[in-house]
C-alpha cells in the first residue's frame, strides 16, 4: 500500500507543534500500525532526519503505552484493540492517515506522539491498593466467599490498562472511567473494604487535582476503550463516593 501520513511533530510541551506529511510505500496489510511507524522511522533515519517519537512497550495489548489518536479516534478505527493490535488491513491503498497524541491538559506532550500519563499513576497511588497482608501468614482465598457476579465484575474492571483512551475520547477529557475502574475492582471485593471510604474520596480528589474534566454522559469512553470497561463502573464510583461523604 501507498499511504500519506500526517503526523503531529512537537519537540516538547513548551514549544508549538505542527502536522508534518510523510508519504510511505510498501506497507503490507499484515503489518501492525506500530510496525508501519517502524518502517517510516527507518526511512527517516536513513535520510538523516529525526524519527517520529511514539510510545510502546509490550506490543501485545497489555501495557497501554501505545496510545495514539488515529484519524480522530483513540487507537484507530477497530474496536476493543490497542494501537499495537491494529493492523494495516484496516486501511486502504491511497489512504491519508492523521496521527496525533492523546489530547488532554492532564496529558502534557513529552515529544511528538508521546504524552506524560503520570497523572494516572498519581490517581492510582492515591488509593488504588489494599492493606490486606499478602505475604507470610496469608488467609486462604477460598475462606472468604465472594459472589460470582461480583468477582466477575471486579475482574472486568481490573482489565483496565490505563491507556487513556477514555480521556482522549471524552469532550471534557474526563478520567471518570479509568478512576471508576480502579475503584470498582476493590469496592466489589471484601479485601477492598478496609480502605473503601478513604479510597474513593482520595482518588476522586486526585483526579480533580490533575485537571481532568467531569463525566460528559455521552458514553464515548466505553466505546473507545480497548478493554470495553463498562460505564456501570462510573455509576458504582458515584454511589461509593456519596456513601463515603455521607459518613463524614
From TrEMBL:
Limits of the 4Fe-4S ferredoxin-type domain: 151-181
Origin: domain of life: Bacteria
Cofactor(s) listed: [2Fe-2S] cluster
InterPro entries: 2Fe-2S_ferredoxin-type, 2Fe2S_fd_BS, 4Fe4S_Fe-S-bd, SDH/FRD_Iron-Sulfur, Succ_DH/fum_Rdtase_N
Residue span(s) of domain 2Fe-2S ferredoxin-type: 1-103
This protein's name: Succinate dehydrogenase/fumarate reductase iron-sulfur subunit
Organism: Mesonia aestuariivivens
